[in-house]
What does this fold into?
Amino acid sequence: MSKTGLKIIVVGAGKVGDTLVNRLAEEGHDLVIIDKNLARLTELANLCDCMGIIGNGASHEVLEEAGVASADLFIAVTESDELNLLCCTIA
It folds into this structure.
């Protein structure tokens, strides 16, 4: 299946991340999800046919692995506002 949408990185696979990723996947975007919870990340990545990366979204190495340099959009939706801001600043 060829993706024709935007390349989007989403940090956080909780309730908000789940809903967001499902909607974006339906629109055909190329998604990468970053989360610390391996079980939740694997479930969501398999469900939405997208790449999942286990790790901290505020880590420069994790963001490089996710392809942040070539991403069209970066979204951080963890439970922590401070972490979300830090992730976006580093991205």
Q: What stands out?
A: The chain has a mean pLDDT of 94. The domain at 7-90 is CATH 3.40.50.720 (Rossmann fold).
